[in-house]
Amino acid sequence: xxxSITGTKDILPAEIPYWQRLESIVEKIFSSxxxxxxxxxxxxxxxxxxxxxxxxxxxxxKEMYTFNDKSNASITLKPEMTASVARAFIEHxxxxxxxxxxxxxxxxxFRQERPQAGRQRQFHQFGGEALGSPSPLLDAExxxxxxxxxxxxxxxxxxxxxxxxxxxxxxxNYKNILRKHLDDKKNQLSEDSRKRFDKxxxxxxxxxxxxxxxxxxxxxxxxxxxxxxxxxxxELVKALLKQSKVxxxxxxxxxxxxxxxxxxxxxxxxGKVGSxxxxxxxxxxxxxxxQLGGAPTPGVGFAAGMERILLACQNEKSLNLPGEKIDxxxxxxxxxxxxxxxxxAVYFRQESLIVELDYLGRSVKAQMREANKLNARFVLFVxxxxxxxxxxxxxxxxxxxxxxxPLEELNEIKSFIYGEVYKSYPNY
Length: 428
Hints:
CATH architecture of the largest domain: 2-Layer Sandwich
Strand content: 15-25%
CATH superfamily of the largest domain: Bira Bifunctional Protein, Domain 2
Structural class: alpha+beta
Number of strands: 16
Radius of gyration: 28 Å
Largest sheet: 8 strands, mixed
Strand order of the largest sheet: 1-5-6-11-10-9-7-8
Number of domains: 2
């Protein structure tokens, strides 16, 4: 038997309503902040991610799905979305169309890492990018959007962590200070952290190795060495978050794993998804567009893992959706009325009702069992003496009441169903 590839997962019909609920919240909240959806190809030139994410990162070095196509070009399934949005921004000259562009996306991503709870090799992210302004107001806005989406899912066990990475010059100065502090402890670090020591020492803070964390526990922190402009911007971001009633804590060890970040950085973590607890993260990246060949353009954004968020919802039991129902089940009473039942189903489906009928030649009793299993709101009986008298019987499943309608008055049946459904579900 052929099974799905390790690290991939089928999203089954019973799970889809939860995904759709999350997607609808994402779309609604981003739209309220005037972000426009963008969709980019699933694969890009490999060099896009090498130049943006950085050759020394785990993503580029270990995790990307990269291959040569038939023209021998190096192609990569996208491991993250910011680089793709940046490439589209440059390619389509968005910066010339208007000074500020705000995008959001919902998309699959691909990383060849060890599968674990809430993280697959094909996974899904939503996120937003605001390109064109260095204003800290946008930093705060991005964090507020992320927090509002997660709060709208009724998640309670959330912690917003923020930090500032400063501008590159102050960060380089800090790296030298950190390198001197850790120099005599370098050989005690894990193999990955020893490599990071030489190539990008800030990444040692990302290490999950307990001994590494113990070694860096008393290390000087970047925020004490950032430039005055970054300090002022960070103070404004904190003030805006307080004003917007977004709870947060400053985490001086928080560094983002990608090379293009500057100034504000943040994560929102959950206590309900195990050790890999970050639901979303992001920050400011004022150098990325120029790094990819565009005009200097400041930017800020975030990405959120949808599988991990839905796992948190499941663990907190926060996303309780009403059971799925169909509007109408049409029951065939007489075997020779199959074609008529099909005709009626087509009519009511054209009227935007969710309709099902029997395709297996089952008895009336079996059809009614199926209607109950599907949580049908109404059952329409076609056949028997009533049909001979050109009448149809509509049963209201919640009460057991039955109503009789002339065969030619299908519009009356439709209007009644609409009315009953609307009373129960005002947003129907």
